[in-house]
Amino acid sequence: xxxxxxxxxxxxxxxxxxxxxxxxxxxxxxxxxxxxxxxxxxxxxxxxxxxxxxxxxxxxxxxxxxxxxxxxxxxxxxxxxxxxxxxxxxxxxxxxxxxxxxxxxxxxxxxxxxxxxxxxxxx
Length: 123
Hints:
- It is a single chain.
- This protein is of the alpha+beta class.
- It is built from two helices and five strands; from the N terminus they run βββααββ.
- It has helices at about 40-50, 55-80, and strands at about 1-5, 10, 20-35, 85-95, 100-110.
- Strands 1-2-4-5-3 form a five-stranded mixed β-sheet.
- Strand 1 and strand 2 form a beta hairpin.
């Protein structure tokens, strides 16, 4: 999987087809901690009685993932990267009501391979 976020390519793979890594800058990290609000916990408690997806928590989780990824990309840019390879997401529960989401990967500088052009192939 590869995505382009502005001028930074992010991929879960350790390489990007059609490009070569010319410099490894280190680990880029983005972290966010989210609290499940009282109202959301109440609605989730009611929904859990009937079973099924708890949309309030799904939306909160998606927002937290997006924010962690955006922060990782910003950190990669600060390091001077134009790509993040080996991208991963991790999460942990800090307390009963708080979750930590971490996005991380290797910040690199890439350039198109001379004989393959500048296109990127998404695996």
